[in-house]
């Protein structure tokens, strides 16, 4: 993978007071420990500055995020893997449970953890193109953690979520629109950001405390479930990583990604 140039995230505040959080880990914004830590710090910053809203996007021209960095899970140092997983949990708790308004401008592919980040926002606009979005874990022989599933069930109807999760369905932009996995499509990144801003402006006349408490109450179930089961969730993740069969399939998966990239 290419060496990192520049900061892993960019956090800027526009003239309307909207925070734009841009993931910047070329080539595919795979979520390693350091990127997750930086996303977490930026979410803290947005909350601390009482910014009214945030748009999550990517600096890549074709990938929103490739999901978790496979290299964090392949033959890992178990202490780092534990910190990696708890940092991912923290990021999800901060994003899914945030009181400020959140939207994702999905400017490219969003498999697995990339889909999770976008679904944790309140609104999704995806750029038209040959991009796909979804939770593909079962295709990799693994089970998405319960909170990944809960997040999908908060986004699309439960029947569709069950079907998508069990079949590892990767949705095209049109299919995602049809099922409600995304709210709008856009011609390019600028259009996606504009559409996210239009969504954010819908709240101009809604009292912000009422909005925030309503959001938190509606999202309370999945949040409490993870908060109560964090240790068990982490233990399950580490248990997976210790399984030689999982390590073997990871190795094969990495090879297949590399072969595809080399073509
Ligand atoms: C995968 C099995 C995990 C098993 C873990 C075990 C237990 C865990 C238990 C529970 C956790 C479960 C939760 C998992 C959630 C996840 O997010 S897993 C990650 C799933 N992500 C993917 O499957 C996406 C794979 N990537 C792609 O499909 C494509 O790269 C893309 C995103 C569609 C982009 O395509 P594009 O053509 O633009 O790029 P390339 O494919 O050429 O890739 C460039 C470069 O980047 C490397 N790479 C791609 N994805 C990842 C990644 N997720 N992690 C690390 N590296 C990645 C790719 O190998 C290329 O590298 P290079 O050859 O060195 O250039």
Automatic annotation (TrEMBL):
Pathway: Lipid metabolism; fatty acid beta-oxidation
Pfam families to which the protein is assigned, alphabetical: ECH_1
Transmembrane intervals: none
A GO MF term: delta(3)-delta(2)-enoyl-CoA isomerase activity
Name of the protein in its database record: Enoyl-CoA delta isomerase 1, mitochondrial
Reaction(s) catalysed by this chain's protein: (2E)-tetradecenoyl-CoA = (3Z)-tetradecenoyl-CoA; (3Z)-decenoyl-CoA = (2E)-decenoyl-CoA; (3Z)-octenoyl-CoA = (2E)-octenoyl-CoA; (3Z)-dodecenoyl-CoA = (2E)-dodecenoyl-CoA
GO cellular component, one term: mitochondrial matrix
Keyword annotations: Acetylation, Fatty acid metabolism, Isomerase, Lipid metabolism, Mitochondrion, Transit peptide
Self-association state and partner proteins as the record states: Homotrimer.
Database matches in InterPro entries: ClpP/crotonase-like_dom_sf, Enoyl-CoA_hydra/iso
Coiled coil: none
Lineage: Eukaryota, Metazoa, Ecdysozoa, Arthropoda, Hexapoda
Main location: mitochondrion
Function: Key enzyme of fatty acid beta-oxidation. Able to isomerize both 3-cis (3Z) and 3-trans (3E) double bonds into the 2-trans (2E) form in a range of enoyl-CoA species, with a preference for (3Z)-enoyl-CoAs over (3E)-enoyl-CoAs. The catalytic efficiency of this enzyme is not affected by the fatty acyl chain length.
Biological processes, Gene Ontology terms: fatty acid beta-oxidation
Subcellular location(s) per record: Mitochondrion matrix
């Amino acid at each position: 993978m290419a060496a990192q140039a520049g900061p892993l995230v960019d956090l800027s505040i526009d003239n309307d007071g909207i925070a734009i959080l841009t993931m910047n880990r070329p080539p595919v914004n795979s979520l390693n420990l350091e990127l997750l830590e930086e996303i977490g710090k930026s979410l803290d910053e947005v909350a601390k500055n009482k910014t009214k809203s945030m748009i999550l996007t990517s600096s890549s021209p074709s990938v929103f995020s490739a999901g978790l960095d496979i290299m964090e899970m392949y033959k890992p140092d178990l202490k780092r893997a534990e910190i990696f997983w708890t940092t991912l949990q923290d990021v999800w708790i901060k994003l899914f449970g945030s009181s400020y308004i959140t939207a994702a401008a999905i400017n490219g592919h969003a498999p697995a953890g990339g889909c999770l980040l976008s679904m944790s926002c309140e609104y999704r606009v995806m750029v038209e193109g040959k991009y796909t979005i979804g939770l593909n874990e079962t295709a990799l022989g693994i089970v998405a953690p319960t909170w990944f599933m809960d997040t999908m069930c908060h986004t699309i109807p439960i029947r569709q979520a069950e079907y998508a999760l069990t079949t590892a369905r990767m949705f095209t932009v049109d299919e995602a629109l049809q099922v409600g996995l995304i709210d709008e499509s856009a011609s390019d990144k600028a259009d996606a950001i504009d559409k996210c801003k239009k969504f954010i402006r819908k709240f101009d006349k809604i009292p912000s405390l009422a909005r925030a408490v309503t959001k938190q109450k509606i999202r309370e179930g999945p949040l409490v479930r993870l908060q109560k089961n964090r240790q068990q969730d982490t233990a399950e993740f580490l248990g997976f990583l210790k399984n030689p069969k999982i390590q073997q399939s990871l190795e094969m998966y990495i090879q297949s990604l590399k072969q595809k990239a080399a073509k």
